[in-house]
């Protein structure tokens, strides 16, 4: 028997942006346990805005687990928060009710800033560093500093060791700003891995005394880019059938549902989606081939391949909840399929 350190992770009840919480319990297993072997566990919901003081127990239901290479015999256990009965999802548990489909693939591009002493890492005590230009995918101490790259590299290894589908990293447009990408087949798979990757980054940064700033526009109304979490998506139909006619119907459905998308694309997005800094205005919908100023960017490969492949919704921001973002995209896609099957039935 081996004693495993199980880090149970969950999203708390803070709005508009939940925080990741985690606590450890030790359990003995013959070998690395299956998900089904991991027991439910409780926590004090009154400390996480998930219960009133009087009756404060909430339950943690393991839904996915990953090896944690930073700890001897460590396991990261992503959980859903349940009511004390253990079967009713808590109101803060969005994952329980989202639309999921293994054949819809998501690639999230998480942008964020490193923060130290209340400003982006590498910013001078007063004023600003040299304007944006050399930082994006940059190299050299003046452009990217020293610690930042070390953290980013360590984070990449932590994710790969955990079996997370990490797809890449790059230094971003603003100084102190970086990006990593996570890919997954299905809303829950992609979003679980994004939340755990966010957790690993925050935990890693503790020892460097650096914070991760996920706000979408931490430098406000200045000439510094904000942070997005572009959502790239493809259904089986988009990958294998596609076509211009279907694509245009799909874009019309996105246009009809601007408000539903923006509602789950992350808080304070009006600060970021201004029409400047590679964004489209928040109240408009546009799409364009290779257009980084559009709501949805159509990759060259998509247009050149008979309107087949994946699309990039550029509106979700760095604090968005990937569960709800993926689910809303699926909902809009499903509305088009429904319309098509209804008109077939009528014909
Ligand atoms: P850019 O910065 O040019 O927008 P990135 O290379 O950072 O692009 O991100 C591209 C994203 O697209 C990655 O997250 C990748 O996983 C995702 N992606 C690639 N192919 C597909 C696909 N078929 N379906 C969904 N996502 C995809
Ligand atoms: Mn990118
Ligand atoms: Mn980017
Ligand atoms: Mn992108």
UniProtKB/TrEMBL annotation:
SMART domains named among the record's database cross-references: Gln-synt_C
Top-rank EC class of the record's enzyme: ligase
Xref: InterPro entries: Gln_synt_N, Gln_synt_N_sf, Gln_synth/guanido_kin_cat_dom, Gln_synth_cat_dom, Gln_synth_gly_rich_site, Gln_synth_N_conserv_site, Glutamine_Synthetase
Cellular localisation: Cytoplasm
Catalytic reaction equation(s): L-glutamate + NH4(+) + ATP = L-glutamine + ADP + phosphate + H(+)
GO cellular component: cytoplasm
Domain GS catalytic as annotated: residue spans: 89-347
Gene Ontology molecular function terms on file: ATP binding; glutamine synthetase activity
A Pfam short name: Gln-synt_C
EC number: 6.3.1.2
Highest taxon, organism lineage: Bacteria
Keyword terms of this UniProt record: ATP-binding, Cytoplasm, Ligase, Nitrogen fixation, Nucleotide-binding
Domain GS beta-grasp: start-end pairs: 4-86
Gene Ontology biological-process entries: glutamine biosynthetic process
Cofactor requirement: Mg(2+)
UniProt family annotation: Belongs to the glutamine synthetase family.
Quaternary structure, from the entry: Homooctamer and homotetramer.
Function: Catalyzes the ATP-dependent biosynthesis of glutamine from glutamate and ammonia.
Protein name, as recorded: Glutamine synthetase
Organism: Methylobacterium haplocladii
